[in-house]
Amino acid sequence: MSPEFSAKKLVTREFSIQNSKKIRLDFGQLKARYELLDIVGAYASNPHENIDLTPYVKDETLSHKLTKSDWKITLFGIQQTKQWVKRAAPGGEGMVMDYFDRKSVQHYLNHFDSAFAQTNFPIHPRAFYHDSYEVYGANWTGQFTGAFKQQQGYDLLDYMHILGDTLHPDYPLIMHDTRATLAELLYTEFTRTWTDWSTKYSSLTRNQDHGSPANLLDLYGLSTIPETESFGCSDFDILNLACDPDYEEERFGRPHPLLMKFASSPANLLGKPLVSSETGTWLANHFKVSLRRVKPQIDELFTAGINHIFYHGITYSPEEEGFPGWLFYASTNFGSSSHFWDELPLLNHYIESCQSLLQEAQADNDLLLYFPINDL
Predict the structure, then answer these.
(1) Domain spans of the chain?
(2) Lowest-confidence range among 88-92, 159-163, 172-176, 219-223?
(3) Are 294 and 311 within 8 A, CB to CB?
(4) Which pLDDT band holds residue 88 (cuts at 50, 70, 90)?
(5) Any idea what DSSP says for residue 274?
(6) DSSP assignment of 290-321, as one string?
(7) Please, is 366 exposed, middle or buried when counting C-beta atoms within 10 Å of its C-beta (0-12, 13-18, 19+)?
(8) Using DSSP, how many helices (H) and how many strands (E) does the chain show?
């Protein structure tokens, strides 16, 4: 991804001007010094006043007369997060895309359109899959201020200096509106764009929305198959069934039915027949997981409304690699080199029996609980 299409973040840079009554700044030099794609706001402050300097920028130069005083200058700039795609497939190396910009998303999807167009037969995958949202630090996009004004009804630039002052009484309000704008952009620019694109190929969508800076219920509602994740080892009260002593709860946490229901609840509400799960992730280190450990994790998913199990994972490994073959770092090994491979059909039969009933059943909930997203 080029800088234009890569994930971005808002950063602040501060410096002092002492006993001065005039300020002159070269934005071109400042952008180069601080590795900024753009500067969207500039403010001067002292204990008595705060001045928005942004209107005084012309041709990349800020020039303005101030009252003689010591001033703190705060710049709000846009910077690439520089997060690279983790464990990219060949040809997929590079920076993570900007999820809050439809042009960036479409630029990414164009690559698949081009690849599919070169085949001699129609491409109709059963579903396109999006893993959990793991775009670290991204909180901005080129169209953000315009989207903010359209959604919130006022200009963020008039209040941007408050974002640099966590003690300001209006800071929680400005942050709320900033996050609400990001949430709406993630919904419209990425999730809906990707969903509409998948429909073009007559394909379903499986989307893991946990981790997203948005209302998960809204995002899951756009998916054909909302997907949750059973990540880590649950501490069940089952005799002689303990988690791997090497399992790091502080690092990985525990699976929680409430998180699972963020996927099943909108599915039930909107009449979606399938709710899936990435299942068995990080139960323990390789070859230390038993099927007795796996089954109650799956039962927990079933009781949370999940009815479509996907193992995590079955890594492709060429036969000539032998034992143990290629292994994925984060998975319980459900592949042919697994120590429970011969017994796995028994668990599969159990899952098949349960899912055949659950997928035909209708949700029958007596209570609908409102999730207070705006209070978070």
Answers:
(1) 8-80, 102-375
(2) 88-92
(3) no
(4) confident
(5) -
(6) -HHHHHHHHHHHHHTT--EEEES------GGG
(7) exposed
(8) 10, 10
